[in-house]
Amino acid sequence: MKLLTVMLAPGSINHVANIVKGYAIAIGVVFGIYMVWQWWQTRVREAIIDRTARARSVWARHLGLALQNPTLAQPNMSRLSESDVPRYRVFVASQLASADEILALDPSDQWRDTLLRHLVPHKDYLASEDFRQTTLKDCSAETRSVLDRLARS
Q1: Do 80 and 123 form a contact (C-beta atoms < 8 A)?
Q2: Which terminal residue of the chain has fewer beta carbons within 10 Å of its beta carbon, N or C?
Q3: Among 84, 87, 101, CA closest to 138
Q4: Burial 58-70 (b: 16+ CB within 10 A, else e)
Q5: For the whole model, what pTM was predicted?
Q6: Cα dist. 91→10, 17, 25, 30, 74 in Å?
Q7: What is the mean pLDDT of residues 19-45?
């Protein structure tokens, strides 16, 4: 027992070595926590970038459809032919499905404002009873909030 007391006595080489080991372990643990934190932050940033890119891809797909069908994207309801009305309904349903997907990926105010601007030309149809009884039921709560905002404007 006396030998152990001498070896761990303050100021002895063994005592100093144990203190250094303790600090080394503490520094290692702190460094490990820091590395995990950095890894986690990188993954979060990558997930945000990925979701933003996917939302933009969905929007680009919708804009391509709008470019192919300009009379449906900016409708004049009185000029739509009888055969164009079902196509128009499907176009609006497609736009709202894109809105659902975008808001599920990135429910930011920027996207809400963009979607709102592109829904304004369809305000009359979106306020119709026909729309409320059919397509509205398929919309997510996020998209419904954008539609409510459009109705209030």
Answers
A1: no
A2: N
A3: 101
A4: bbeebeeebeebe
A5: 0.74
A6: 82, 75, 63, 56, 11
A7: 94
Residue partners of 75: CB distance under 8 A and separation at least 6: 88, 121, 122, 125
Q: Count CA within 13 A, CB hemisphere, residue 16.
A: 3
Q: For residue 8, what pLDDT band results from cuts at 50, 70 and 90?
A: low
Could you report the per-residue pLDDT of 82-99, keeping only the tens digit for each?
Answer: 888 889 999 999 999 999
The three-state secondary structure class of 140 is: coil
Query: Residue written as tokens 């970038």?
Result: 49
Mean pLDDT of the chain: 88
Question: How far, in Å, CA of 133 to CA of 64, rounded?
Answer: 28
Q: Identify whether the C-beta of residue 119 lies closer than 8 Å to the C-beta of residue 150.
A: yes
Q: Decide if 72 contacts 85 (C-beta within 8 A).
A: no
The DSSP secondary-structure symbol of 128 reads S
- DSSP letters for 60-111: HHHHHHHHH-HHHHS--TTT--TTHHHHHHHHHHHHHHHHHHHHHH---HHH
Return the half-sphere exposure (C-beta side, CA atoms, 13 A cut-off) of residue 152.
6
